[in-house]
Amino acid sequence: MKTIFIFIIILTAFVTTINKADAQKMYAGLNLTYGMGICRMEGVLYSANLENNVDTYKSTAFSLGKGLSSGAYVGYMIRSNVGLELGINYFRGFYGTVYSDAATAMEYHYLEEFRIKANALRCVPAVRVNFGEKKLRTYIKTGIVLNAFTEGTLNVDYHEHSMGDSQESHYVQKFTGGLSIGFHSGVGLTYALGKCTLFFEATAYLQNWAPKHSEITEYTENGINALAVMTTSEKEIDYVNEYSYNYTNPPNESEPSKELRFLLPMSSVGITLGVQVPLGK
Amino acid sequence: MKHAKIFWILWLIALPMLVNSQGFYTGVGGGYGLGAARNTSQDYVSVDDGTNVNNTYTAKHYSYGQGTSAGLYAGYMIKNGFGVELGYSYVKGSTFEFISENRNSFFNFNTKYLNRSYGKTMRLMPAVRLSFGEKKLTGYAKAGIVLGIGNKLTDENEDSFSAFGVTQTDYRITEYTGGMAFGVHGSLGVTYMFTNTLGIFAEVGGFYQEWAPKRSELIKYTIDGQNELGSLTTYQKETEYVDEYTDDGSTNTNEPDKQTKVYFPFSSININIGIHFSFGKTE
Q1: What is the rounded distance in angstroms from the CA atom of residue A231 to the CA atom of residue A252?
Q2: What's the rounded Cα separation, in Å, for the pair B110 and B47?
């Protein structure tokens, strides 16, 4: 809803500032993108068979850019084949496993798993160059991408079962804040169907994200809520470019702790399907 | 560098042949790329005077695609405004330095771990080019894939330890090689033609590239300047990076170690300028 609301405001502002002649050159569209993660970071899936002493290591890699996005755009053709456009997309990421550690033996099982995803609002100003005059056209788009309201979610699950005794814990850490700026490009084909145009595009986003803050929002141990006994410094972290820790004068526990700012990968390549319509008569 | 020379020689041989070819274009240029889609590391300094311990952490971000690049391209305009081309560029990455240091004045004990790393890659870039404008000044957009070949990452580590006036310095260089880097790229540029054939171009482009090397090798290892490489086994010097491996506790010292894949960032946002040659049809 927030995406649609923001887009309507931008679209209204855009449309009201141009005259009727210019309106002939305007267009708008809706799109749906599936992105696969690229420019990823590595992770490891580790499992140990304690009965025969064989450890297995599997390589994994993740980017928070993996997921679905849907949105809308509006554009203006400044020449017959060159346009400027602005898109707004809501990106909903899929979970990726960053790390897992497991061990099995008779009467013993252990598993620890870290899974992460992100959602974001993407603002995509771009230049579009079209080629072709008939029903089937080619185009290339290039621009920048600005992510706002990005929220990352880390789920950590721990389970240990030994000789009939089980220990379980689960926590959810939410990462927020920070603007992610990146680069966007796409190459596509359009097919005219009456006034509408259908399009298919290979889309790429090159970006990463440095959250400013995180907070543990859920923490259970053997099903019991353990969040209430945690201090603010245990639950909340502010991410900064530089900090010092003085052992003789440690930070206040009623304030968020400080850790170094880090970059999470949010790049993706994928396919986009959509429909475009002219806004003028 | 050998691959780079081959590309330049082929281009110089092909250039006179292209002069009379309708619809062909080519160009040569270079520029600088800012690191994009970077990873994070840190500097760490711990100071202990016996009564007070203060640790300082500083975030550092890096992509080995950051640095200077030079290259060339050649293409064919299939129709007016629509072309296909193949580009090549050699990227010499910037050097990144990370420090981890402990200074203990109470026990007169200091350690300093200095890490320097830099990468290089050659980008092969098949692309589609769409251009607009009929006169001297034309704009264009390009999009395509990137194949990173001849990738190499050099990792230097200098570890110094000093206590009670005694100092030791270990120095190691590890090279990561093998494997192709896949990615995509897109760029936007303008061309200004002085004559029908000769012009200049300026463009901004994004290169999305990650690289997982296949192997690494310790190529230099000294302790206080003395070569210690000969005392190491193959297992200690070489590592192969694989999707999956098992470890049953046994080790063959004559074979490389095995580790899961590591991914190095090679993405960048580049600004390039250069000379453009256009033959025959206008773009």
Answers
A1: 10
A2: 9
* Structure tokens that stand for A275 in this block: 């429909």
Place of tokens 């509408």: A196
Cα(B142)–Cα(B185) distance, integer angstroms: 8
Taking only the tens place, the pLDDT of each residue in B181-192 is 989 999 999 999
Closest Cα of chain A to B222: distance in Å? 30
pLDDT of residue A163: 85
The phi and psi torsions of B139 (rounded to 5 degrees) equal: -105, 160
DSSP A239-281: EESEEEEETTSPPPTTS-EEEE---EE--EEEEEEEEEEES--
Give B56-89 pLDDT, tens digit per residue: 999 999 999 999 999 999 999 988 889 999 999 9
Cα–Cα distance for residue pair A60/B244, rounded to 1 Å = 9
Q: Which residues of B touch A246 (CB under 8 A)?
A: 52-55
Closest CA to B83 of A143, A129, A84: A129
Distance from CA of A118 to the nearest CA of B (A): 16
Q: Judging by DSSP bridges, how do beta strands A257-260 and A236-240 pair with one another? A: parallel
Q: What is the pTM assigned to this prediction?
A: 0.86
- State the Cα angle at B101 between B95 and B107, rounded to 5°: 160
Nearest residue to A127 (alpha-carbon basis) of A168, A86, A163, A67: A86
Q: What is the DSSP letter of B180?
A: P
Structure tokens at A203: 């889309």
Give contacts of A248 with chain B, Cβ < 8 Å. Answer: 51-53
Q: How far apart are CA B86 and CA B80, in angstroms?
A: 18
User: Which domains are present in chain B?
Assistant: 2-213+262-278 (2.40.160.20)
Which of B52, B140, B244 lies nearest to residue A246, judging by beta carbons? B52
Task: Determine what percent of chain B is predicted with pLDDT higher than 70.
Answer: 91
Task: Work out the widest C-alpha separation in chain A, in whole angstroms.
Answer: 79
- Which among A44, A140, A245 has the least Cβ separation from residue B130? A140
Q: Which residues 161-220 of B are in CB contact (within 8 Å) with A?
A: 183-188, 206, 208-210, 212
Cα A145 to its chain centre, rounded Å, is 12
Query: Would you state the structure tokens that stand for residue A249, as one six-digit string?
Result: 């004068």
Across the interface, do A244 and B261 touch by the CB < 8 Å criterion?
no
Shortest distance, CA A169 to any CA of chain B (angstroms): 28
Interface predicted TM-score of the whole assembly (ipTM), two decimals: 0.82
Domain map (residue ranges) of chain A: 2-212+264-278, 214-260
Does the beta-carbon distance from A142 to B141 stay under 8 Å? yes
CB atoms < 10 A from the CB of A261, how many? 21
Indicate the SS3 state at residue A210. Answer: coil
Q: Which fold would CATH assign to domain A2-212+264-278? A: Porin (2.40.160)
User: How far B283 CA lies from chain A's nearest CA (Å)?
Assistant: 12
